[in-house]
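re: ur question from the group chat, yeah i did fold both. here u go
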Amino acid sequence: MDQGLALCYQLLDASDEQIAVIDTTYHYLFANKAYLTAHKKEKDEIVKSHLGDVVGADMFNNVLKPQLDDCYLGKEVSYERWIKVQEKVFRFMRVRYTALYDEHHQVSAIAICYRDLTEQKQLEVSLSESKQIIEQISITDWVTDLHGKIYFDDVFPKMINISKRNKQILAFGLINIDHFKTYNETYGGNAGDEALKKIAETLRNAFKRPSDYTFRLEGDTFAMLFNVANSDDVKDLCRKIHHSIESLKIPHANSQTIPYLTVSIGISILQPEQQESVASVYKNTQKILWSAKKAGKNRISYTIL
């Protein structure tokens, strides 16, 4: 290592910002002391390892990779928001991704910079308000503002039990965006986030009752829970949702279905007397969803349990 580079690394190590550099394959080239401390890693553990192995596959695939891909295209990505750093632990962070260029003016690496602003943020609001914000964030998907997976895991079994007790029909639906990976590759991660927000807004408009629930479970999958008087009501509502999303006409030139973004929907209609476990209901609904995908996508499949 030449003297200039060594001095540069010393300066970065002295910064209280968490700083790392990754190459175009998402492998670490460098991480300063603040970054290593935050991730509870030694330098030898991080350098040359993959970003996804350090932050987790879900965080990498659903949050970081789309943003980094935009950065590799030469765009600077920066924002401030609450971020989950551990289970039920959130910090308010300033995030910045900056493209680094080689002598041929090609992006060869990305600098990752995180600054923890939690204490500063908490000075702006009362402690009680901060707790409410963090609690809300823990159950909310940060892209769409729908409920997230943590809240779904809490609500799903409760809704099944309440529906049995009240002798109500419960509909549980999974919605998956067709060819969403191709969409992100074609239009970029920011466009993907905007598409997710539009679909989320469509779901919000479809479900207005306090007992209706909508969720974003993971990257391209949404869920819905709602009670109905009969199974025909489920089918009517799902057809309206499906049509509304297609009517958004979000361009998708590389879709193998139609030149717009579409969804496939799998619905389980749970009769009050059904005795399936929560895990079994979820698994059966996944199967119904994937039967819709295998049948050509952009369609709805149902099952009655």
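okk and heres the other one u asked abt
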Amino acid sequence: MNRDRSLEVPIRHLLCPQWSFVLLAMATVLFAATPLLYAQSVNPLEGDARAIRGGAGLFRAQCATCHGANAKGISSIEAPDLTQIWSQRSLSAAAVFEIIRHGIPGSIMPPHSLTDTENWMLVAYLQSIAQAGVVGLPAGDAAAGRLAFVENCSTCHRAHGVGESLGPNLSNVTSQLSLERLVASVRDPDALVGRGYKLVQLRVSEGEEITGLIKSEDAFSLQLQDDTGRLRSVNKSELQTVERLPGSLMPAFVRTQLSNQRLFDIFNFLQNGAQQ
């Protein structure tokens, strides 16, 4: 995946596919049985508004004739409902990426020479119009999940009236992101840093260094939330350097720190916490 490419890249020609349910199921089996070098295991552009707009334009121009303007398919040509490929077929974002790139062998669905960014833009659009959020959340104890959230997450995140606001509010996250994306954000947060949550380090004229998240900016000042959660305003005239740091402020939680079951407990709290 070429992460350095701008989202505003030319969208190459994409032939309109006429997928059938049977052929797509066969292709899924083929891909599952064949080792694939996916560009990413999850879509780095999932939920990105600009990427979704670009993917929507690509879909309307090249795909809607066969799949319909709402992507729900056209029965007369057996074009499938693309809003159901995540929930009914349990396809991952990486699998859809590879189907678009390599086509479906033995069918009229051809391979496409899209860049990685263009491909993920199209996948992001399909994710945005699909059944939203977590599908098939594993069983968990929401009460235990609340305790685990307080212990592991509440220093930076807020959900259902609990916690702080340095990171994103997670009250509605299970209706916004897939289970795959949620797990990845906990196990490897550096791989998927959302807009507005990328770290910067400022050095001001007094020699002080401030690390945090830029919340707003005007011609004369920067407003940021530092790594302690404190909101600060810095005059640009006082700045010596501004360094944008790689990675996320959030630490990675490996299974020995936070087991899958405790993680699912937290997700159940996030999904049902308002009822607790």
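fwiw on the second one: The first strand starts at residue 158 and ends at 159. The first helix runs from residue 21 to 33. idk if thats what u expected
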